[in-house]
Amino acid sequence: MPSTNDFLNGAGLSQRCDLPENLRRRGCGPEFTEQSETKVEVNATISSTQVSPQDISINLRPGAEASFIVSVKQLEHYPVDLYYLVDVSASMQENLDHLKTVGVALSLRMTEHSSDLWLGFGSFVDKPVSPYINVHPSKISNPCSDYEIRCRPAHGFHHVLSMTGNMSEFTRVIKRQRISGNMDTPEGGLDAMLQAAVCQRAVGWRPEAKRLLLLMTDQPSHLALDSRLAGIVRPHDGLCHLENNVYTGSTRMDHPSVGQLSDKLLENHIYSIFAVEKQQYQWYEELVCLLPGSYLGKLGLFQAPNLIELVVDAYKRLLSEVAVSVSVEDKAVSRYWVSVSPICPDGSTAKDRSCSGVQPDQTVYFNITIGQHSCPNDGEDEDITVMVHPVGYNESTVIRIHSKCRCSCGLMGRCQDDNQSPCTGTQDGSRQRQRQEQGLMKDSNADRNWSCRADGSDMECSGRGVCDCGRCVCEQSRLGTVYGKYCEMDDFSCPYEGGLLCGRRGVCVSGECVCDDGWTGESCGCPVSTATCQSLNGLICSGRGRCVCGKCVCDDPKHSGDFCERCPACQSSCQSHWKCVDCHLSHGLTREEVGHCNNTCTPLVGYTDDVAGQAGEMWIQCMYISKDSCRYRFQTSSQSGRTQLHISTRPECVSSGRLVGTFLSVCALTVLCGLVVVAVSRLLLQKRSLSPGGAAEDGGYHCTGKDLSYIPTTNEKTVTYRRDRPPDRPLEMHIQVPKMPLGDPWQC
């Protein structure tokens, strides 16, 4: 806590208390600060057999942390409470029958692990509302009426048998159970699990026993928000709602969330075991990962031996794994962080919060560190409680944290003597009393108010504070700190980069980002280094651009790419170099005359005998036809950042006489080919005219066998003519058309 009066420079008085590095950055030296010490006190008066210590008090301040050790010891034998929570929908009829022989056999099997086994039983189906069940009156009382079977009504949870050591009573209750029915596939298993966990008095969980909750089902379970289909939107309150052993909140509240169920299982020291058919194994495998202290068993059939082995294996597995869960009060969870490092009996340090393979009478030590990020928004001290729950144990550690957020200041939040004036000091106080004696108090207040206004401003404290005794006291903001003599500065009005103030690469001072080393720009989004603009050839932007804010900006818009390495228009512009090549040709392609063409084209021009020998991805092959009809090959490259040109000194020339001869030869060949085609055509026609039958001579047409079927066979035609004023009877004309002999040709 700094004690200098001019340190704040108009900032809120609560800003005197901050992290040491923040105070130093704002100009407060170590000699002007005070720090409250971190203190850890263990209450050794509370004895325990499994978890110790059970009560710890810690004084913390922002930026500080405290560490302590919690030990968890595994005992030799525990009493065991096992509660069977069974899905009694119609598909579970056969599985329910297998439970009738489980009680006595399981009791005998568990004697080697526990000397005191108690069993309980409860059933569930689903919420008894539409669309989960059929709400027809005949279906509500008997969901199986269509199958002429008497079923019990659907229910969210029914507690049937409290914990008992009487195995005969357990068997008798199981035999009386009947199935029920519902409409949809998922069941209300999680809803029933929460009730079985929190209704401790009704279920009869013993405080000293290891508590096992076994869920048996062949279907997945509904999750939170599923009840909206039935118009149920009220979240589950996590409390017990049993009346006459029936869950009455099923139709009023939604299914619990997985997180809520996890908290209630931990809070009530309950291990959960899931006995499901293999078809649903994957769904529950993902659920078990979210529930500490849970075990999943895959059963082909719900037969008694399988169930007994499942319970025994789960009990041994769960007890041999020691884990802790740390919970912080909801109101302060964002201001604290927790780290847990277990030390297992073999001396190893596990990566997660648990140790496996722990044997009876062995102890696991958990090194727990709790740190504080920040204070509450009001800047006041606070007291919170942190709980350390060893999973499945009925003992826990309570950590009481007192957060020290205030400094040793006066009632008004100022570091000053009690005999000072309410303003800024004794000298100002004497002046005030003198002015008050002279009747100038009103003018004094006006003078002090004007001292809270910046030059040229008619607003006190920039509209972000109040004027108190001639000095601005800046308002607090959830966004950050407002400070300055006139509250004109803050640390949150700077540009954002990627949703972060100053890109989290700098600090906001007076509305501008002060960037960390290596960064620049308005929002600290630009690296100072040009390494991100360096191309493979070592040049910045391939020598064709500038590095701006870590990215290449090409000088020529024809270039593109991350490093200006691409130029689609350049690679097809051989014509742009023709003028350069022509200049070099006019000077004889001699190295002595190369300099004459520097003004016409690039100075990096070379001559070579064969440009094909340098072909590759970096070189573009081109051709230029000179005035004397000679072809000159050349190649160009711009990969190194500067244009290069290689011109072949071996032209490909053809004489004019040779060109004329070639032209005449092509013409003669074309005429000859035409004559051959005409001659062949005439020969084919003549051969056809001399074929047998002589049809070509008389211009006739011979009918083939197929054509005969189309020759008409009718030789009579009757035509009737009528006039507007017919005579006494119609006049008819008969025309006889003789048949044509088949051998006669058709004549035109």
List the defining traits of the structure above.
36 strands, EGF_integrin_2, alpha+beta, six-stranded mixed beta sheet
State Rg.
50 Å
- Sheet with most strands: 6 strands, mixed
- Hey, roughly how much beta strand do the residues contain? 15-25%
Helical region count?
15
The helical percent reads 10-25%
Strand order of the largest sheet: 1-3-18-17-13-15
Overall 3D form: flat
* Mean pLDDT value: 78
**For this entry, what is the oligomeric state of its chains?**
single chain
> What is the number of strand segments?
36
Distance between the termini: 127 Å
Poorly predicted spans? 409-445, 693-701, 703-710
Protein name: Integrin beta
InterPro entries: EGF_integrin_2, Integrin_bsu, Integrin_bsu_tail, Integrin_bsu_tail_dom_sf, Integrin_bsu_VWA, Integrin_dom_sf, Integrin_I-EGF_CS, vWFA_dom_sf
GO molecular function: integrin binding
Membrane topology: Single-pass type I membrane protein
